[in-house]
Write a structure and sequence with these properties.
The protein has helices at residues 15-24, 42-45, 47-52, 68-80, 108-120, 130-137, 142-151, 175-183, 185-189, and strands spanning 3-8, 26-27, 32-33, 56-63, 85-86, 90-95, 98-103, 164-169, 193-194, 196-202, 210-216. The strands form four sheets. A four-stranded antiparallel β-sheet has the order 4-1-10-11, with helices on one face. A three-stranded antiparallel β-sheet has the order 6-7-8. Strand 10 and strand 11 form a beta hairpin. The two termini are 31 Å apart. The chain has 220 residues and is α+β, with helices and mostly antiparallel strands. The protein is globular, with a radius of gyration of 17 Å. It holds the Pfam family DUF1045. This is Phosphonate metabolism protein. InterPro entries: DUF1045. It comes from Acidiphilium rubrum.
């Protein structure tokens, strides 16, 4: 069954998009593999995020209850009521052992956008089986379990953290960490506006996610 997700993806002409897609070795919009920077161990360290494509999650991947076209229509309606806003500065840091681009300071408009996607698009999500939910709930606290059962994912609303994943979980220290700090420095320093969301889809289990369409915020 097809899965789709709503993500933040930098604009195609943003230096951060060019840097991030090259770092992961794949452009999910052009649907092309890219030669990665010559950094020892990078290809192996980016295998999983390469499949998902460069992005930050707003509405996590979900099997679709009403099809892709209906999801696109509803994302357009949701985006119509949002306005573009200045992005926070991003920085390379660790998140649960993974390298990622994180907010240097929290952004209330970015959190509001994620919340709107999680709540407002949840009717498109096909619920998982009780057995699978129970398996995924192991180790979660009470709030995480409530969110898992309600939204299919435990790290939403006040537990959501903006992140653009750059690696697998890595040993500490790991040589690509210093390389990532240098590599993303200039792109992270570039001011940007968040003025769209992107829909990515996975055509079959295990397939690479592809960027299907970008939907502008505030458009009629």
């Amino acid at each position: 069954m097809m899965r789709a997700a709503v993500y933040y993806a930098p604009a195609a002409d943003d230096p951060l998009w060019r840097a991030g897609t090259a770092w992961l070795g794949r452009d999910p919009e052009a649907r092309l593999d890219i030669v990665q920077p010559d950094i020892e161990g990078l290809a192996a360290a980016t295998a999983s995020p390469r499949r998902y494509g460069f992005h930050a999650t707003l509405k996590p991947p979900m099997a679709l209850a009403h099809g892709l076209d209906r999801l696109i229509d509803d994302v357009r309606a949701l985006a119509h009521d949002m306005v573009p806003f200045e992005a926070p500065r991003f920085t390379v840091a660790r998140l649960d052992g993974f390298l990622a681009l994180l907010e240097a300071t929290p952004s209330a408009p970015l959190r509001a956008l994620a919340d709107a996607c999680v709540v407002g698009l949840d009717h498109h999500r096909v619920g998982e089986s009780a057995d699978l939910v129970a398996k995924r709930a192991v180790g979660l606290d009470a709030v995480g379990e409530v969110y898992l059962r309600r939204f299919g994912y435990p790290y939403v609303l006040e537990r959501w953290r903006f992140h653009m994943t750059l690696s697998e979980r890595l040993a500490v220290p790991h040589p690509i960490e210093a390389a990532a700090l240098e590599y993303f420095g200039a792109a992270c320093a570039t001011p940007r506006v968040i003025d769209s969301v992107a829909i990515y889809s996975e055509s079959a289990p295990g397939a690479a996610f592809e960027l299907i369409t970008r939907i502008p915020l505030g458009a009629p």
